[in-house]
Structures are given as C-alpha cells and as structure tokens.
Amino acid sequence: MSLSRSARLGAAATAAASFLVVAxxxxxxxxxxxxxxxxxxxxGNGGYDARHYDLDVAYAPxxxxxxxxxxxxxxxxxxxxxxxxxxxxxxxxxxxxxxxRAEFSRDGDxxxxxxRRALSEGRVFxxxxxxxxxxxxxxxxxxxxxxxxxxxxxxxVFVACEPNAASTWFPSSDHPxxxxxxxxxxxxxxxxxxxxNGRLVSTYDKGGSTYTHWRESKPxxxxxxxxxxxxxxVRTGRTPGGIPxxxxxxxxxxxxxxxxxxxxxxxxxxxxSQVFGPYPFEETGAIVDDMPQAxxxxxxxxxxxxxxxxxxxxxxxxLAHQWFGDSVSVAxxxxxxxxxxxxxxxxxxxxxxxxxxxxxxxxxxxxxxRPADSAFWQTEVADPQxxxxxxxxxxxxxxxxxxxxxxxxxxxxxxxxxxxxxxLHRYGNADTDDFVRLAERVSGRRLDDLFGTWLFTTxxxxx
Length: 463
Ligand SMILES: [Zn+2]
Description:
Blueprint: H1 2-10, H2 17-24, E1 29-30, E2 48-60, E3 65-76, E4 80-86, E5 91-97, E6 100-101, E7 103-107, E8 110-114, E9 124-133, E10 149-152, E11 157-160, E12 180-189, E13 193-195, E14 199-206, E15 209-220, E16 228-230, E17 233-238, E18 244-249, H3 261-276, E19 284-288, E20 305-306, H4 312-320, E21 329-330, H5 337-354, H6 359-368, H7 392-424, E22 429-430, H8 432-443, H9 448-455
Parallel strand pairs: 1-4, 2-12, 18-19, 19-20, 21-22
Antiparallel strand pairs: 2-3, 3-9, 4-8, 5-6, 5-9, 7-8, 10-11, 12-15, 13-16, 14-15, 17-18
Helix pairs in contact: 3-4, 4-5, 5-7, 6-7, 7-8, 7-9
Residues 317, 321, 340, 343 line the site of zinc ion.
C-alpha cells in the first residue's frame, strides 16, 4: 500500500500522473462479493479488511433460536460505494454503518450493505447487523458427509464451522484470509456453560440467564470461532510450562474413552511449544461435547472441540493445528495440506516422542499399505479440489511429504524449519510456495523436485 501511494506522489509532476490522480479521486465502487478463492468464489469479501468482531448471541436451546448482533470493525481497502458480508439463511432486521442506519439487500449467502455515504480508502468503519433465526448445519461431501456448523445438542449447541459454516451463525467475511480479533458475548439459559475462544473475561447469572464474555485477542479465522453451549464440567489450571488451560467436558462423557483430556492437552501443548515454537495463543484447552452426529473434531482456536472422536492422537493432532492452521492459516483452501499434513505429521512426531514408533516407520506403514493403483495416489495434494479438500491423501501424503523432506535435509534443518515457519507467518496466512521457498532457504538446497513429486503430481512416488 505505501508503495503505490508514494509512487503516486512521485509521479505527480509528470503527465502520466494526471491519470493516477484521477484514479485516486474516482467514483466509489462496490466491494467484490468474494475474496478470490476458486474453491469458494463467494466466501470472504473484497474492498475491506476485517479487524475485529463483537459478537453478541443469545441462544434458546428449547427452540433452537439464535438472536444476534454482530459489530464488525473493518478498514476499507478501496473507495467503497457498498460492500458485502457473508450470511447464510438467517433473517436480518437492521444494519448500521458507523452508527447510522444503512440500506442492505440479500442475494443467496451474500448480503450487500450500502452506507449513506461512500467510505474512503483507508477509512476504519463499523458495520452492525441485527439478525436472528434458527441456524442450520451444513452438509454435503466436504466433511465426509458429516453435518457441520451450528449443531443442536441435547443440552445446547456444538459449534464447529470448517470450512464455510461460520456465516451460518454470524455475518462475516467468512474466509481464513481475512482474520480478525473477537469479543464474543453469549447469553444462554441459567445453568448452562458457554465456551468460546481466547480467555474468559466474565460470566454471571442474571434472571433466568447466564451471560458469558470471551475475548480472543489474537487474529482468528472465522471458521475457528465457536460458541459451544451446554452442561459442562470445567477444569482450569496451567500446563507445567505455564500456559493457562481451560477444559470443558460434558458430564455424560466423563468416563468414556478413558483418555485424560486435561493431562494430554497440557502435555502436548508444552511439547509442541518446544518443537514448533512458542504457543501462539493466550490459553489452551478442550471442549468435549456429546455430539455423535459430528463425525469429526476441530481445532477451534485455543480450545479444540471434540465430538465422536476422542483419543490421545486426536488431541495431539488438534493442538498441533494451533500452530499449523490457526496461527499460520491457509491463504486459499487448496492449501489445506499445510494444516492437515502438518497435524498428521505431528501425530507421527508424538509417537516418536513417546517411543512407540519412529516417524520413518509411520511413513513406511502408510506408504506400503497403499498399492500403486490405489485411488489414494490420485489426489494432487497441493490442489485437491473443493469436495475432496479433506481427503485422506491431504493428511497422509501431506505428512509423508514432510518425512521425505526431513530425510532429505536432515533433522537439524528440518527442526529449524518448523519453528521458522510458525515465526515467519505467525497470525497470518501462507501458501505452499511460501513453504517451499522457506524450506530451500533454511536447508540451502533446491527442493522443487521433491515437492513437485509429492505435492504437485499424482501417482505413487518411487522411493
Ligand atoms: Zn486436522
């Protein structure tokens, strides 16, 4: 930005400058309806940069109704006559821009807001949306056919939104390339516990309700936000390394699974902090909820949510995502291997750390188990296509790629590369090319053949 601005000033004395000056004072235009992701052309929005969300939600588990007000603080990145938010299905009753009523229209999952006056480029503004309805989960092939999003439970709601369900419960720029900080305030029936991201600011009962305020002060992708509500046993403390822990377990699951969620969460957070670099968030934890219809767990920022899947290897996977996915987020959804390949590789590292199996042996087991004619080898990991973006190849071949890389560049360079990656892109976004370039820089080697074979082509690579 500053580059184009100084170029404009520098050119002011020349004839060519008049075009640029005219361009700078040109008429405001609408922001784009999508952020430019080929897998989800409508997700995210153009023309502004989301900075902070104030989410207020009141949830009535008996009726399933949510009433909300979202105030988004954003910065215009162009001169805007109007801009879009993503919102699926819920009814909007009012919109304000900088406190003044604004016009809006709906078209599918896009909501277009037209402020009374155009917003100049660089201007920081707020847009408040009052809305309500009964949020419905999404389905389809993306999450292996499982429902996901805002999912009603026996005692509240389970909220896990990857990749595109955040906009089923709050209006947003619903793409990980537009991260922001959050204040999340939840009103729920008295006696229930509301768990969200970051740290607990306050919780109190008034009348028949419980009011809970959470604050996520580090940038977060929309899909990592949660407002999970229900009956929970909460245990707080610190890891041996000193990181605050908040673990909420549905009491009906207390004795199932046999895994010590609190203990594994604390141990894995500390261990990953040594291997991947400093823990990026203010608190670690877990939300364990009784939601058998969700056939997945999700690396919700600072507190993964666990449903049907609860075991040690899942916990270490979701916690590895706090670095790979949550702090360093994908720029486009085709890069999901940067999340899933790394979190799967973390499972292999955990087994190595426990002394049960080396990462090399985990690699060989996965490699040898799949014959060359297996469909597994037909996924291009660096561009797996939308409906198969969470296919097993993204996880397993992604992890295999990291083991092949480790054996090529050696342990010293490899274990410098991982924390270098999380440091360089902390709280930001990155893509596969960024990783390839960093791996080459840290190792001092050309690696395009390795990544070309393992990430950008199909077929079973020869060893
Ligand atoms: Zn994962």
